[in-house]
Amino acid sequence: MAVKRLQDDIGAYLTEQDRELVQRAYVFAAKAHEGQFRLSGEDYIEHPVAVARILSELEGDAHTLAAALLHDVAEDTDVTIEEIRQEFGVEIARLVDGVTKLSRIQFHSRMEEQVSNLRKMFLAMAEDWRVVVIRLADRLHNLRTLDALPVDKQKQTAEETLDIYAPLAHRLGIWRFKWELEDLGFRYLYPEEYRSLAKQMVAKRSEREAEVAMVISRLQNLLQEHGIQADVQGRAKNLYSIYRKTKRLGIDMSQIYDLLAVRVITATVSDCYEVLGLAHTLWKPMPGRFKDYIAMPKPNGYQSLHTTVLGPLGQPFEIQIRTREMDRTAEYGSAAHWKYKERRSDQSFDQKMSWLRQLLDWQREMTDAGEFMEALRLDVFNDEVFVFTPKGDVIDLPVGSTPLDFAYRIHTDVGHQCVGAKVNGKLVPLSYKLNTGDIVEILTSRQSSGPSRDWLDIVKTSQARSKIRSFFRKLLREEDIARGKTTLEAEVQQKLGVKLADLIDAGIAGNVLRKLNYPDLQSLYAAISYGGISAVHVTTRLRDEAAKTAPDLLPKREEAPKVVPRKPRGPEEAVTVKGMSGFLVRLAQCCSPLPGDPIIGYITRGRGVTVHRLDCPTLMSLTDTERFIEASWETEVRASYPAEILIEGVDRPGLFAEITSVIAEMGSNITNATARGNPEGTARITIQFETHDLDEFKKVVASIRQIDGIIGVRRVFGKGR
Fold it and tell me: Catalytic one among 75, 82, 384, 708?
């Protein structure tokens, strides 16, 4: 009997008191479902018992198992949630209520309804993620018994599973659910492809099993020689992942070599790395195919070492190495933390689930269904794109990755020295979103000054973002500190008529530091330099603090400084075109380059050389590549350049005045400005002003971002104005 098997399953890990709770829930559910049958003809109670057994494989807690047994009672019988609360308590009633609500959600509706339903699911997860795990187990058992349903219902359920539930299991890291949900969904949605692939899999797997056995034997012997206790086992890929790989890469199954792999389970993290080294003494590792998910875990908490080697027969072979705890997390994902929900909080688990809370906070601001669905695909149901190097090597990246992510995946120096990119032979902006099959070429220059801070807003991968941040931390911090200090000293002297050192000695600067949440002066100086905060804003805070705590430090009268405007010099003096002199040089109006922007010249018949930003969209339409010519900025020439920004903020009195005041205080001349509000209570403000270079422009933007109510500031070019 199914319930007897359930009791046997939970007997190994639940207390007698917990087992009694599960038994009470079973008796209650069996009575409520008495006389009900499934389409397959079996007693209905067999379904909730099967769901509970699936959860017991993950060692689900007693409350979760009880809720699983009761999950259809409120939906399909006369029993109410209130009756369940009286009989089993608030927690179990809340879980049952959550699962009942989720069971009513249909994901095959139009997009707006899908978004609404997904929001409901994520909200349920945020309140108690066990609700969704029960729902996943419910869906898994329904798939196992899907033969009883009509074909159209089978396909609808399968499609919903592959689109929503399997990716959700992946995001929660519950691989046991993910693999079976995918393969069963694949079987019913694409039955012919499933049967064909399964047949090929059986034939091909038999060819590889001998090689797997050889690998396992050699590795086990080597580990024993070095005194390392570990389990070495074979692992097969699930059919759906193989199917997707053949579709993504446009290949057939005969070209896939990692159908089987070897997994090594060790006792400690240090053993993992030792096993890795020993494996590489047996078989040659393939370049670029090592992934350290122990040092850099996946968002769902997955940790493991992955390396691909050339096996005994000369074909690529994957080895996965992890500890027993990591293996448990890999198999059970979030469900590895059942115990913390009942007994105590777990900070590491809360961090792993923080993506969900962040998603909910963000999605409340979303009004466009398409934008929300796109964000879900990137942030929750993330997939990969496969692109090629010019030599034909395949590089896999997250969906939404850019040429910069590609460059940093190749090598740190390639990323740091990147000045442009070509995709499929054409110049593209560095913000271009890569697609599967793209051939990507990175243009580099040893004269490059390194990455731009704007890149942090462009890159998709944490790897690229980490390397960019590391560059600035290691190479530019001291320079930032010196430059920021000089800027602040000059601003304080000019606006307040006192020395910054006097404010520091009086403790005024320290008070301001604490209020601005900077740990020390060096961090503040660096932030001023790279645009994290403006010297104008800091000076204002210093003035206010001094007026309250040490008014005698400030002069009795503040005289406005006399500014002698510098005569602008033309752009033809600020740009050097390689190998040419006396040519008419003009800056392209379509992208309005500023000193500091990577640039390139284009020889225009009868009009000299037009200088574009290297990521200018107009360059994509210029097919005569022989007319491109190197161009660079003449750093000693100081001229004024037009720039334009679009600001979005909360529509409130005085916002426009504050923005224009900040720009004026930064020493920039405003040439045009427009503002308009909208019914949603926000304002869009477009401002054209003159600036000397990219650094100065960024400082203006950073200062505007400090103003209360600012939602976003972005640079505008050409027709985007």
Answer: 75
